[in-house]
Amino acid sequence: MTTEILNGNELIIQGALEAGFHLYTGYPGSPLADYFNILYERKNEFKEKGIRVVIANSEANAAAMASGAKQAHKNALVAMKSMGLHVASDALSVGNFANPGKGGVVVVVGDDPWSISTSSPADSRYLFKHLHIPFLDPSTPQELKDWMKIALEISLETSVYQGVLLTTFLAEGGGRVEIGAEKKIDKELIELNPAEFDLAKNVMVPPNSFRADISMIKERFPKVFDVLKAKKLDQIFGNTSSKVGFITSGAVFEILKQVLDDNDALERFSLYKVGAPYPLIDDLLVPYLKTLETIIVVEEKRGFLETELRELMSRHRITAKIYGKRFDDVEGFPIYGGLNYDLVLDKVSTVFNKLNLGACHPSKHGVTLSEVMPRRLPTFCPGCPHRETLSLLKDLRGHLKKQNINLISHGDVGCYSLSFLEPFKEMHNLSAMGQGGALGAGVDLFTTNPSVVLMGDSTFFHSGITDISNSVQMSHDITYILLDNDNTAMTGHQMTPRTGESVEGFKRPAQDMLKMVQALGVNEAIEVNPSDRYFYQNLLRETVMKKGTKVIISNKECGLTFHGRKKATERKLFNNNGTLDVQRFYQINTDACEDCRACVEMTGCPGLSQTFDAYGPKVTIDPQICVSDSYCTKIKACPSFELVEVSNYHPTKYRAREEKKLASVNLPLPNQKKTLESIAAGVDYRAVVTGVGGSGVTTISRVLAEAAKAMGGRSDVDFKFVDQKGLAQRNGNVTSHLALYKKGKSHAQVTPMGGADVLLSPDLLDGSHHLGFLSDTGMAILDKKFQIPLSLLLDRGVEKNPVNEITLANKLQGLLKERITLLPMKEVSENHLGKSVYASALILGAAFQMGLIPFSLDDLEEAFARTMKKAELENNLTAFTLGRRLALGEDLRIEKQEAPMIDLLFASLRESSIFNGSALVEKAKTALHELKTITHGQGIKEEHLARYIHDLLIFDRGLKFDTFLAEAKKLPSLYKDQEMFAMALRTLAKTYFIKDEVFIAHMMVSPMRRLEDEKNYRDLGTSYKKVFINRPSFDLGDKKVEFDFSPKPWMLKTMRHMRFLRAALPAWHKEERRIASEVRSRILGKALDFKELRALENIKGYRQVRYDMARHL
């Protein structure tokens, strides 16, 4: 036998290959989302073996297909998530009671006890029983793989469908398993003779269904008891002479056994592991139960196993006391959610104390920050077309609200379910998959609100088409927005009937949703490109208020697949030292940005980030995340966005690199804190890896998992892992737990609190959320920076200043002292390799060099070679080496020479003047000296003070300098706290100038911008040019004139001198001037508290955005 590292979905498929299934079907859904991706990757292999693979339109379709395969005397495997079992239950019930052929059927269901990625906290054990489907509950990766074969054997021997149940941490986790021989299947097609069919068994209608019920109860299902008894899947551990026994099953067994082992409890008590919770086998369990006086049942969710035990004990008149969901008068193991090591330890301690059996060792809690850090919520990926629809729904809601009309958004299941989160909140309810329209019908029958339903393309084919038909037949006034992104995207980009390729790789007709809905007889149907914002905006405004059933199909490919292909093509080009003719980047001119965050509010794009200048936070674009889809620029709430086109682009070709820094010559090997030898002797090793989805976090766990495959040639060490992905395809948190331990021991999938030897994160914020996993001697290696989460961008600091990288780093270093290492991994990765994503390999290198990885250098380098695409291997190995060098103390950052900011500001003043720039600079220096005197001891940077002076001079040549300085002198007596004083000063300074078209013209072509552009783009190509994305506005009498315009640099250089327009157009920006005057008077009128002052500072933005923010004045 060979040894492999496989995850839960891979184990299902490997076990199925060893069992001998002819058909693999089901429907994608977490935690079994990867099931079909793996099958697609292996499509040629499966085709050669004669195995058929079908992604059914729904779980019910898959269940019915399995019944058909059984009739053809073939074996079928059906995989789905817990909610899918609900959908499939009708077809499963009919198929199970029928007995049309000799094939076996195994139904694998992934439950989600923690509700990490599921809309309903389902417990599939109850539904399995309801359907008369016995099920196995494997505990370990090895059992999951092996029991797939056993499950098929049970089905074949009994003619009854057989279930296999696994939960999230086993499905998304995995470990080191021994692989068996695959079973060849008969791939020849057969011809059935209908004359030989036993229709009484095949056709479930009365009276056949009644006879089938009798046959199931009296003949077929009793065989299950006999087969399970013969399989002997149950196991007993510990002291079998004890009067106290634990009973459990599934993945919980590993958690419970580790708790008991850690407390030496199995020397005093016994532990019974049930292989099949339904049905329980009397002959196996009763002899054990009769020896006990006290039974402690440990299981997740409701007390299914406990109830089954109570029924069995009642029949056999066994009187032992059961502790499970209740410990007499107190709550026992929770009836909601899942279980982990710490929960089980706590409850076992409680019951031990209650029974006077002695307490368990106290649990370790690890260290945590006293301050609550902002959470990283899942959100739509960069370039996601759903964001474009939701942005316009939010716009539509505002448009209708002005008419006193409230729009209702009905929910459905898919990526777009995330629309209930900030910043959109465009989902007001949610029903089962494909039932959002029917849910809406129930609401709309009794309300006057217009309504919309969001529905995905795969959801449409799953069952959503019946929703639309239902609306048509009941004359429902509703608008369906079908989000066609060419993928079942949320579960990992499986194909849909809309795509022209099957999971087996065959070409097939692409089913046309537009023609299908038109055939249903809807009142109106149209297909749009959601990127066409203005057409789509007008269409929505017109359509939603019309009568009847309307359908809008938003057709644009998923951003991940589109940009994934694009990046793969570019990667091949760059690896051959080729260049792109033109690469486009979007950026924000932070001198023009007002930090109004309209772009954030209307897109929620994770490519939008944050920086800080003299006026506080500003929005910026993170080029490592942005995919240049340009949607943020279409909001056009400000003139800050710019397009930069780089010619002959290559991410690293033009950069001067010191190649000696990238070489790995003579790097010393580390002294490992824990070795494979010490682990084999019984010293466990735990690592927790966490970060942002899509940033390479799973690369770390993949490499470590692959290294565990070799394990230095050892067979006495076991390995287990779990990747907690949740809802995050991208930009939510992803956390991996990895464990190495002595072969034969049991281990919980998730690290106990205070149990990790190392915490690794290429993101400072995500790492800070997981400190509690660190042991007393554990080490944390985190990046110095963090990707700004949407929650932070939406936090305007009304109560207090949001956390930033510097303050967070200081808190962590103060808490962990020498046990934390902060390294500039993303910066070094981007500087040397062109992408920050290689920070994942850097952090592995740093951890290895610090002795925190128990694998050898050879094992790790070979693991990289086996897990990486050939085109990515060199960069990842280089990054690994860079990480080792960082750990050794080398400074690998590439510092770019920058002119001092104050010098740049003075150069800007000179450039802004037609005649006497030097006089303007002297005026600035005099004013700066006076302002420094006023602010002495307040901790404000001199360059910030210089910025205030510069902006007043640019605006009107400092006509109100004296007034500004006089009023600034009043601030120290009003605001004695340094933070409050700084906020008051910068807010006061902003009241002395308006960012009108004249002012902004200079800010677009200033020396500060030119230097910033040079720094960012000089080394990316042979040349670059900028396109300004602008929408100027002028008040001409009672009329406002706005138009899209991309000015040339010469136009801007001319416009910056046209200050006379302010006098010529007295109504121009009149409201802005009024707001500025009111803000100024309030700052100086009396001492304001933090909240009041921040409310004034937060009056930002251009035109209507600012007016709306100033309504409270």
UniProtKB/TrEMBL annotation:
GO biological process, one term: small molecule metabolic process
A GO molecular-function annotation: thiamine pyrophosphate binding
InterPro entries (alphabetical): 4Fe4S_Fe-S-bd (IPR017896), IorB_Oxidoreductase (IPR052198), Pyrv/ketoisovalerate_OxRed_cat (IPR019752), Pyrv_flavodox_OxRed_cen (IPR002869), THDP-binding (IPR029061), TPP_enzyme_TPP-bd (IPR011766)
Annotated Pfam families: POR, TPP_enzyme_C
Matches recorded under PROSITE patterns: 4FE4S_FER_2
Name used for this protein in its record: Uncharacterized protein
Source organism of this protein record: Bacteriovorax stolpii
